Amino acid sequence: DVRWSDFGFPGRSGKESTLWIGSEGANTPCHLDSYGCNLVLQVQGRKRWHLFPPGDTSFLYPTRIPYEESSIFSKVNIANPDLKRFPEFRNSTAHVVTLSPGQVLLVPRHWWHYVESIDPVTVSINSWIELDADHEARVEEAITRMLVCAIKSAENPSDGDLWLNPTEVEATSHEINLEYLNKAVSAYLKCQEKSVSGQARSSSTGAEQRTNTLCKRKRREVGCESEGCTLLTQDCSTPKAEELQKIHFGPHLIQVLPQSHKTNVMGAVAVESDCRDVLHENEGEHFGKLHCKRKRLLMSNDYETAAHQMDSDCSPCTSQTPLSTNDLLDCLVNPRVISLVAQLLLERMKV
């Protein structure tokens, strides 16, 4: 019954959506999604969203430990931040909105969010909207998975190190991860070829239009209008990422302002992106773990437990504290490092 077409995505329905059911106090640790943007419809109960723009990423201390595909977590406990350990967090700008039943929230690409249920029972439906930029993000995710699984597989599994999020059922083999990386790279290059081809057609169309204009002008000069000169049209069936981000989601879209500037949030359009409660989802047909398949983070009523798991391996290093595998891994799979590795890898494939 959900018509995402009302938001500019014709043909998109509940089949591309995920159902979330949670209890009061259930929450999602602060994170950003690697893929796409997100539309969330609140069906029952209310959820409070704390959103942070991509520009605040460095203030949120990103980490991939515990590892979950397509989710980059913040080391900061948003509900009770430790400013001594994470002093830069005070420079972040929170956008807080409470989603009520019937409201839809748009979570733009790479916006951080911490979500909490504030009613006894909450029900939400969301749909991740894929973007062209996801092809490069999928390459980065494949590289991250390879590094994490390869390095952590060398440790004793009985040491109690909870490096894998409960959503990730198991650490896949190196061969499977390598296959996933190759498919991700192939998909990216194929997308790039289509983009270049589309630009070439556009350039050709422009030249054809100029030729046709000149043709008509000359024929008018001799009193003869050509019926054989036709204009080519470019098929733009798939909007680009920048075009999707400019889509106007209807006349009732209300901007979610920073917390310090907000005066009224009652009318905010809501879309609940990842309140990770009990979920049911229809898996897509993309290779590997798609953006719709990735959301399996179990909701927990004890945020401190989840925060402790994420922070336990990130304590400040002193001269008396030896470096752990997680210390090294947390640096190796830092989003900035992975982005650079992905660029180098893609450049190598183009040669």
From TrEMBL:
May play a role in cellular stress response. This is HBAP1 protein. It comes from Erpornis zantholeuca. It is found in: Cytoplasm. The gene is Hspbap1. GO terms for cellular component: cytoplasm. PANTHER family: HSPB1-ASSOCIATED PROTEIN 1, HYPOXIA-INDUCIBLE FACTOR 1 ALPHA INHIBITOR-RELATED. Signal peptide: none annotated. Its main location: cytoplasm. InterPro entries: Cupin_8, HSPB1-associated_protein_1, JmjC_dom, RmlC-like_jellyroll. Residues 1-144 form the JmjC domain. Gene3D superfamilies: Jelly Rolls. SUPFAM superfamilies: Clavaminate synthase-like. Keywords: Cytoplasm.
